[in-house]
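User: Some background: our group keeps a shared notebook of sequences we're curious about, and every so often someone picks one and asks for a predicted structure to add to the entry. Today it's my turn. The entry only has the sequence so far, pasted here. Could you supply the structure so I can complete it?
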Amino acid sequence: MKKIYLFSVFCFLMLFSCKSDEQIGGVEPESSFVNFNIDAVPYSKLSTYAFFKGDIKNLNPVSRVIPYEPASSLFTDYASKKRFIWMPEGIKASYEADDKSLNFPVGTVLIKNFYYNTIQPGNTAKIIETRLMIKKSSGWIFAEYLWNDAQTEAELVTGSDFTSGSSKNITFKKDNGDVITTDYRIPSETECYACHKLDNKPVPIGVKPQNLNVTYNYPNGLKNQLQKLVDEGYLQSYPSNIVSTVNYNDTSKPLDIRLRSYLDINCAHCHQENARCDYRAIRLSFTQTANFAKMGVCIMADEPIDPSLERIITPGNPNKSVMHFRLTSTDESNRMPLLGRTVVHDEGVQLLKQWISTLNQNCP
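Assistant: Of course. Here's the predicted structure to add to the notebook entry:
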């Protein structure tokens, strides 16, 4: 009798245990678990972090992996991007200035996925790479993950076996129907550092309050992204008077604000003090370009390229402006930005050309 009773209790406990692990009411319980050991990262496989639930290629984040999108996006050969922030429990970032990246605590991970929805033939979707920036006690580190063709996993390639980076030949279709074939550049750790460098230390680029002070369509509705970070316990607070960038594709915004936003996200990380191109004559952060001279208007070029290109920006004449020349070039010795693109960003060039054409001042 005692044996039968114990067996019955065992079955009951097993049944209860199994039920607790099954779907309740047909809905799978939400998990916020991320596998993160700061002493062990970067892991060799992206899936090990458990940032995403279900089929990893869907990039469906677990609850505390928060999506974000800057007002204007860095151009990378027309790649689309999905970005996320994850932080361990109990720590928060802090605000320092509109144009300075949030001060993230140790343990923060910034996740950036690069993909195309129109890979040819067939307009198929394909993730090319995922880049992580991980904040360790020694500072930010980079971890580069390349996706396999089956889109089932991304493998770590940062390190001694990837010092020179690599390229991947792709053919994709633009929104206007143009088909482009290019050798998409996958950067080495050194190349990442070239752009993500300030005061000789690696830093993030896009996570500045001026870029995040816009709404995002989260699964439960629209919300300001900075407020979302506060609500999630990821950010202490932020001021209500942030001077913010805009989406440079938004034609309802003033032309000069759109161009300044474009230059800020694509160029300012190098063209600022104590960065890669601090020796150049221009400063392209959004907070500085309210002064058009900072963008190079009427400023003599500080490098010999072509006799017809005397000024960085020649008012009313894009074809005599160094900046226009560099944005339309794909030559590695002339193009700007130096890294991150192999093709011309037609929309960005058109924006610059339109703005230069509206300038009617006379240079001294």
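Suggested note for the entry: The CA atoms of residues 124 and 360 lie 46 Å apart. The two ends are 106 Å apart (CA to CA).
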